[in-house]
Specification:
By secondary structure, this protein is an alpha+beta fold. The chain has one domain: Dynein light chain 2a, cytoplasmic (Beta-Lactamase), CATH 3.30.450. Helices cover 34% and strands 24% of the residues. 19% of the residues are buried. Belongs to the GAMAD family. It is found in: Cytoplasm, Cytoskeleton. InterPro entries: Roadblock/LAMTOR2_dom. Keywords: Cytoplasm, Cytoskeleton, Dynein, Microtubule, Motor protein, Signal, Transport.
């Protein structure tokens, strides 16, 4: 269980297993997630692969799945829109703010980092 009582963190892909890189990489990822999670107002963090599958989360499974699916589609559309406006450009960060939440997304080549926070905290 993580510090907010949600489900366990989902595992890093088995792709790195046996390479000797798994333990240091996993420790670095865990430390980064803990640091982000400790920031004021952060409600959860999700790492999603390019297929929209959550591979790491500090939130419960139903919430993780909901955010991963919806944000994956939204990110792909936003990236496509940016490229359609200027084919030489790419989406580097996405921020959505509503009355209740702020969702920040840092897309990368292989993963999307999604952070959900309460902007009033």
């Amino acid at each position: 269980m993580n510090q907010k009582g949600a489900g366990p963190l989902l595992g890093i892909p088995a792709l790195l297993a046996g390479t000797g890189l798994l333990a240091p990489l996993q420790a670095e990822v865990e430390e980064t997630l803990k640091r982000l999670q400790s920031q004021k107002g952060v409600q959860g963090i999700i790492v999603v692969n390019t297929e929209g599958i959550p591979i790491k989360s500090t939130m419960d499974n139903p919430t993780t799945t909901q955010y991963a699916n919806l944000m994956h589609n939204f990110i792909l559309k936003a990236r496509s829109t940016v490229r359609e406006i200027d084919p030489q450009n790419d989406l580097t960060f996405l921020r959505i703010r509503s009355k209740k939440n702020e969702i920040m997304v840092a897309p990368d080549k292989d993963y999307f980092l999604i952070v959900i926070q309460n902007p009033t905290e």
